[in-house]
Structure formats: structure tokens, C-alpha cells
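User: Okay, second chain of the day. Same drill as before: sequence in, C-alpha cells out.
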Amino acid sequence: MNWSSAIKEFCDYMKIEKGLAENSVKAYRRDLFKLADFSEEQGWMPLNMDLKALEEAVVHLSKGGISANSQARFISSLKGFYKYLVLEDYRKTNPAELLNAPRLSRKLPVYLEEEEVSAMINSVDLSKPEGMRNKAILETLYGCGLRVSELTDLRISDLFLKEDIIRVNGKGNKERLIPINALAQKRMELYRKEVRVHQEIVRGQEDFLFLNRRGKKLSRAMIFNIVKEAATKAGIRKEISPHTFRHSFATHLVKHGADLRAVQDMLGHESITTTEIYTHLSQQQLRDTIISFHPRASD
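Assistant: Same drill. C-alpha cells below.
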């Protein structure tokens, strides 16, 4: 078994059987071809690699100056790949099991204050044809805490607005139901009834909610552009992406007393520990408030 065929089999397995998103599969593929490039130079093939060889590959990669996060992801990819080879009886043992990933510091994500969210949404020019759509997109990102792929894949058949919920197809093809607020619903409906209804839609794209000018579903890049433009117009200098709205959604819910388990369910997190970072954000904000406004702070 050569590297190309082994990597292709593994990526097909992760995509088809595990239901991983295309971007996640691409990340696995990139990491494994880095391993393949190094290993082929040494004359090593997937089935004869041992722990020592994998450790050499990790050291070689780390000398290239990659971050601890990238190194940890690389090791995770190796573990998944060799676990698959054992599962399919290509190997008896998983040599990657004992690889040690670097300890990662927990970086708090950038989020927007509530006033900044309002400023961005209010910055959208409704006199332009795409303005109503873009306003609905920002309200939906913030109102539901969606990932970019979940927003671009959102379909009209996923909207249950009488029940105040939408259905989302998340990571690993897992469906979840998310409450949607009245303002986001209003913006969605205005876009559908006043803009989208007049568009010529490409066959096969009729059910996608948010469309570009050509009547096709929006790309991820387009969502990034919409968010960046709104941040610039609102005068926000933070490093903003669509995911910033997801962080803001969760941070504001926790700040206002939402149950952490409920936030976990709405975000579609596998583990509660992933959601717990938003309690740290809330605590950080409390600390900053005390430092700024306590009468002894000036001393």
C-alpha cells in the first residue's frame, strides 16, 4: 500500500462513513501528505512506519517553525490515520497512539460587544439590492450562532418559523434545532418576500435560503466579505470573521445567565469543555469591569 492510496482510502472513509465536512477532510489530507513527503524521502511506507519514525516526522515538521496548534493537529491526524489502518486490518498496531502532542494554551476567542454587533448590522445599506439579504445574514449569524457552512447550507425547508426554530445540519452531519429570535425571523422574511422572490434561481438551488446574484447559494468567501465590509463600515478594528458572531452569540448568552448545557446544545459542541471557554470570557469581562470601575482602581 503506497501513501496516495492509503490517504485516499482514509479521507473517503472520514467523509462518507464519518460524515466529516469537506474542510475537515482537506485538513487531514494536507497533514498526511506532509507525512508522506517526509517518509518517502526516508524510504518508509504507511505499513512499515513505527513510533520512532513518526516521532522523527513530527520533529522534522516542528523544525519548520509551525505553531503548537498546527503540531497538535498534525499528531491528531496521524492518530486518526493509523487507527483507521488498524480498523481495516492493514496493521495490527497503531504506532501513533503514544505520540505526545504539545500542551496548548487556551486562547480566548475574539468577540463583539453588544453595541458593536448592533453597529455592524445597522451599517448595512438597505438601498442596495443585496442589503436586505446581508442584513438577514448578519442577524441569523448572531441570532443563532451558526458556523459559516451551516449558514450557506441553510434551506427554506429548514425554517420552522411558526415554532420559532430552525434546523441546522452541523459537523459530522448531525442535525440540531436552534431557537430563532423575532428580529432575525423578520429580516429573513423581508429578504424572502421582497428580494429573493424576484430572483431567477438556478435549477437545484431552489431550497437554499441565501442566494447570490446569479441565483446560486452563497460561498463561504462571500460571507467573509459581507462580515468584513460591515466591520469596516462600523469602524470596528478587531480581527473579525463570521465565527466572531458565533463567539459573540455564546458569550452574550452566558453573560445574561443562560444555562451552559443549553448553549452547548445550540452551538452543537460535542463536549461541554468546549463551551466552558465562554464562562472564561464572562469572567474576564467581570474582572475588567472591576478593574475599570472600582473606586480603588485609580490607585
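The chain has two domains: 3-87, 114-292.

User: Thanks, on to the next one.
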